[in-house]
Design goal:
It is a single chain. This protein has eleven helices and three strands; from the N terminus they run H-H-E-H-H-E-E-H-H-H-H-H-H-H. The protein folds into two domains: about 80 residues, Arc Repressor Mutant, subunit A (Orthogonal Bundle), CATH 1.10.10.10; about 140 residues, GntR ligand-binding domain-like (Four Helix Bundle (Hemerythrin (Met), subunit A), Up-down Bundle), CATH 1.20.120.530. Strands 1-3-2 form a three-stranded antiparallel β-sheet. The longest helix has 27 residues. The protein is mostly helical and about 230 residues long.
Length: about 230
């Protein structure tokens, strides 16, 4: 995978006005999808050239993503994709539980617009069928973004884009992505079924248990990964 070459494909998304926010959105997505794993140094020259943006625009995008805790600036070394601490991972899950469960709890009367959720579930199941476990992880992120989108709030969507992108930094360092993600394929489908059937209370209960179990599992696996000899 050539991350810089992939960025060149994103250049068309910028249009003629390459704002720092648009550049940050592209880089956020690419970081979340694993094109730039944790610890990767981001080259201003290569990325700026691929996207066709000025150094000042790129630096402002880096600043935005540093504020979101996706990047870190190291003096005299440059800008790097952040490596999370274990406490960061636990805090991300606390935030997810607060936001995602509140979204489901606050849904109005059914029917709910679950097409996006259904597409994400199908995407994850197809990826699992191919043995593409990073793809399952991506589909899972899509599922939870679609879940939050049910609130119809641009602010909540923006918040969760950053939170889920940050969580993905932890997933990239886990050596057994299948063991981490496979159990949640069925649980996503169960949440989808509850919402499709208009049972908001059941969906919220399923989601709360899901996030509690996932937090315990991911924090445990991540702690053992970052504390492993040679890390």
């Amino acid at each position: 995978m050539d991350p810089i070459g992939e960025l060149a494909d994103d250049r068309v998304l910028l249009g003629r006005t390459s704002t720092a926010e648009r550049v940050a959105d592209i880089l956020r997505t690419r970081i979340a999808e694993g094109f730039f794993p944790p610890g990767t140094r981001l080259s201003e020259e290569s990325i700026g050239g691929a996207l066709g943006v000025s150094r000042n625009t790129l630096r402002e995008a880096f600043r935005l993503l540093t504020h979101e805790r996706l990047l870190v600036h190291q003096l005299n070394r440059g800008v790097f994709v952040r490596v999370l601490a274990v406490d960061d991972v636990a805090d991300i899950y606390r935030t997810r539980r607060l936001v995602e469960c509140a979204v489901v709890h606050g849904l109005g009367e059914p029917p709910y617009a679950t097409d996006g959720l259904a597409a994400a579930v199908a995407e994850g199941e197809r990826a699992a069928g191919r043995g593409d476990w990073p793809g399952v992880s991506t589909a899972n992120i899509h599922f939870h973004r679609e879940l939050v989108a049910l609130a119809g709030s641009a602010r909540t969507d923006e918040l969760m884009r950053g939170v889920l992108a940050e969580l993905r930094l932890a997933f990239h360092l886990v050596a057994d992505p299948r063991g981490l993600h496979e159990p949640y394929l069925l649980r996503n489908r169960e949440i989808l079924a509850a919402l499709t059937g208009g049972d908001r209370a059941r969906a919220e209960a399923l989601l709360a248990r899901y996030l509690d179990d996932s937090r315990a599992r991911v924090v445990d696996v991540y702690a053992r990964t970052v504390d492993a000899p040679g890390e």
